[in-house]
TrEMBL record:
TM stretches of this protein: none
UniProt keyword list: DNA integration, DNA recombination, DNA-binding
Protein name: Prophage phiRv2 integrase
Gene3D superfamilies attached to this UniProt entry: 1.10.150.130, Intergrase catalytic core
Stated family: Belongs to the 'phage' integrase family.
One GO process term, biological-process aspect: DNA integration
GO molecular function: DNA binding
Biological function: Site-specific tyrosine recombinase, which acts by catalyzing the cutting and rejoining of the recombining DNA molecules.
Residue ranges of every copy of the Core-binding (CB) domain listed in the record: 56-134
Annotated Tyr recombinase domain residues: 160-343
InterPro entries, sorted: AP2-like_int_N, CB, DNA_brk_join_enz, Integrase-like_cat_sf, Integrase_catalytic, Integrase_recombinase_N, Integrase_SAM-like_N, Tyrosine_recombinase_XerCD
PROSITE patterns reported for this sequence: CB, TYR_RECOMBINASE
Length: 348
């Protein structure tokens, strides 16, 4: 189990062959260790992790878990998992074999979290992540018993409040926005229902005013004080949205204001925060309820429902994975439509 020194980076690395779970011979390399012993220890733990059983430690399980989900989750999600595991799970359970985790261990751990000043919503998130990691490890280690069964979750979920503006309320608000950049941003959010993260990386080519198509192919996330472009939130998030003609005309005039505008020019170079203050200020001046920026997406859906657009079309426009997501989120906006349906059937 040799380790090697890289003169260029002044650090140690390990490089070795192993047999994967398919029986294929593969090679692994890991760089960036400050000490030789750390490189050798990492190689040892990697090899041990290939042989899962009840004695596999929770530290090994969490490391494998993070490696495997990294390509499948958004950067912000991975960051949340990393923080929870590094700061609140591994410090207590890193060296504990997964098969030895007991109800007593979990309850004592939960009580430590409860005695801290942690927010209830974050506490609930950490508890959920630990349960997810255990299920992942239990499948690998072929464990049937789950010590989390019967133990209540701690904390509470984030309240999912939904507010929206009617078309008249939105018009009262937007009439006061005289800044052309912010005006265009609010128009796109309200009349297309895109997410704020989908708005920020839009380029001139993405907003095709000739065909009337808004191409949603990416999302902007703020990670470690840097803008990071990622795929949309869901698999169906990559989509084309047909814009109304008046919105295309506004975009044509808006693009003329952008210096040297070409296909790659970003439509909005401001930060997300630049829209928070005017949202608060002008909703108050307009005398309309104060709502969140994300509620403009809900307002768009409420507008479509008011004009009898089907849930299937709305799901496609919003980029939801399935119509069940749409109905689960906006089903409460449909009750008034039920009587309309009954009246239509009565008049057949």
């Amino acid at each position: 189990m040799p380790a090697y020194y890289d003169e260029k980076t002044k650090s140690w690395y390990c490089k070795f062959n192993y047999i994967d779970w398919n029986g294929k011979r593969r090679q692994k390399m890991k760089r960036g260790f400050s000490k030789k012993i750390d490189a050798k220890d990492w190689e040892h733990r990697f090899i041990v992790a290939l042989k899962y059983d009840s004695k596999t430690t929770i530290g090994t399980i969490t490391e494998t878990f993070l490696q495997e989900i990294a390509p499948r989750r958004r950067c912000t999600t991975i960051r949340n998992y990393n923080n929870a595991i590094k700061n609140y799970i591994n410090p207590y359970f890193r060296d504990l074999p997964l098969g030895e985790l007991s109800e007593k261990h979990i309850i004592e751990w939960q009580n430590r979290l409860l005695s801290s000043n942690m927010a209830d919503t974050y506490m609930h998130e950490i508890d959920t992540i630990f349960r997810t990691v255990f299920k992942f490890g239990a499948r690998r280690c072929k464990l049937s018993a789950n010590p989390f069964d019967g133990i209540e979750k701690i904390g509470r979920t984030r309240a999912q409040t939904m507010q929206f503006w009617t078309l008249d309320q939105y018009r009262q608000f937007i009439a006061l926005i005289d800044d052309p950049v912010k005006h265009m941003a609010f128009q796109l959010l309200y009349y297309t229902g895109i997410r704020l993260g989908e708005l920020m990386p839009l380029t001139a080519a993405d907003a095709d005013t000739t065909t009337g198509m808004l191409h949603i192919t990416k999302s902007l996330q703020r990670i470690n004080r840097q803008d990071v472009i990622t795929p949309p939130k869901t698999g169906k998030g990559t989509r084309d949205i047909i814009m109304p003609r008046f919105l295309c005309n506004e975009l044509i005039e808006y693009k003329k204001r952008l210096y040297g505008c070409d296909d790659d020019t970003r439509l909005f170079t401001m930060s997300k925060c630049a829209l928070y203050y005017p949202m608060k200020k002008y909703s108050q001046l307009a005398g309309v309820p104060r709502i969140r920026l994300h509620d403009l997406r809900h307002s768009h859906v409420a507008l479509l429902i008011e004009y009898n657009v089907s849930p299937l079309v709305i799901a496609d426009r919003l980029g939801h994975e399935s119509i069940e997501v749409t109905l689960g989120t906006y089903g409460h906006l449909y009750p008034n439509k039920q009587q309309e349906i009954a009246d239509i059937l009565d008049n057949l």
